[in-house]
Amino acid sequence: MRPNGLNLLTPVAVLLAAWLLSSCIYDYSDCDALQKTRIKLLVDWDMAPGASPAGLAACFFPIGEGEIWRFDLPSPNGGNISLPPGKYRMLLFNNDTSDVFFKDVDSYMDYDAYTLPVSDSNYADGNEAQLVDGEPVLDCPDMMWRAVLSDVEVSEHGVSYDNSTFADTVVCHPDELCAHYHFRINDITNLDDVRKMAVILSGMSGSVRIASMDLDSKPVVLPVDMRRAGADAVSGEFVTFGRCDNSSVTNMLTLSVRLSDGSRHKFVFDVTGQIFSAADPYDVYIEVSGVDLPDVIPDKGDESTLDVEVVDWSTTYIELESEV
């Protein structure tokens, strides 16, 4: 347990928390004096079946004056916590991410998860800011889940939330905070002549507010992993906060290709409509077709195979319409 929404506990502290079945580790000379009410924080994954994060963070923000309390629990099922009497709002989210960072952690409403710019210099010509058509290129986030409680009251009689009677247990039901996107590019001619490929998706959000799930209005570009899917297609999937919250922004799926003769080609698909019309905004499928690559005469003895990597972007755009 630590106040003020500071960073995650150290691994040693997390292990100690598991051993003690309590999140009060340090920061206070007399921690026991602050433990007014012991509460069982239980997690029911009925809203996100199959989710199994390595650990959870539970942040309690006082309504009015008081300390912010954060508990890092080394189990997806919850654990025991202790809180002083008072009224709180709670954020619960998985704390096992490596590519997600947080800001405005002292505010329940503004607590923000975000990712950093990519470090691969192939995205821009030596510029410090990696930009594609004016949009920064950011890493995809790790998968995240969250639950919120806007009215938690702790007293010597126990805990009450969402107008429940006082008891010793709080049950949370986390749901997905991030979305899964899937894509497939069909009808690629001369795929055997491709030596390097890269796929990016523009018009996405680089952050999300955990409490409200509001997305950023400023668009970013996400580089996404892919694999060959048969003789004439590539496919992939990735995790994202979602599409940026700006209706005027388009989502462009760009396939960049370098052939065995060294020529470079770009194919740009407007997939905005597919994203907007997805039946489930947290499980989006994108499918486009029609990549006509020119024939090449390979060098004698060239036995190289498809290398799915990022290539530089100083290539000619070839705009194609989606057949979906």
Describe it:
Helices cover 6% and strands 42% of the residues. It has 324 residues and is mainly beta. Strands 1, 3, 4, 6, 11, 12 and 14 form a 7-stranded antiparallel beta sheet that branches. Strands 16, 18, 21, 22, 24 and 25 form a 6-stranded mixed beta sheet that branches. Strands 19-20-15-23 form a 4-stranded mixed beta sheet, with no helix packed on it. The chain is elongated and about 80 Å long. The chain starts with a strand and ends in a 5-residue tail after the last strand. Mean pLDDT is 83; it is low at 1-29, 121-129 and 310-324.
Uncertain spans, ≥5 residues at pLDDT below 50?
A: 1-29, 121-129, 310-324
Report the mean per-residue pLDDT as an integer.
83
N- and C-termini, Cα separation: 51 Å
Number of helices: 3
Let me know the largest β-sheet.
7 strands, antiparallel
Q: Can you count the beta strands?
A: 25
The secondary-structure class comes to mainly beta
Q: Please indicate the percent range of residues in DSSP E strands (runs of 2 or more).
A: 35-45%
Radius of gyration: 24 Å
Main attributes of the structure:
42% strand, 324 residues, 6-stranded mixed sheet, disordered C terminus, 25 strands, mainly beta
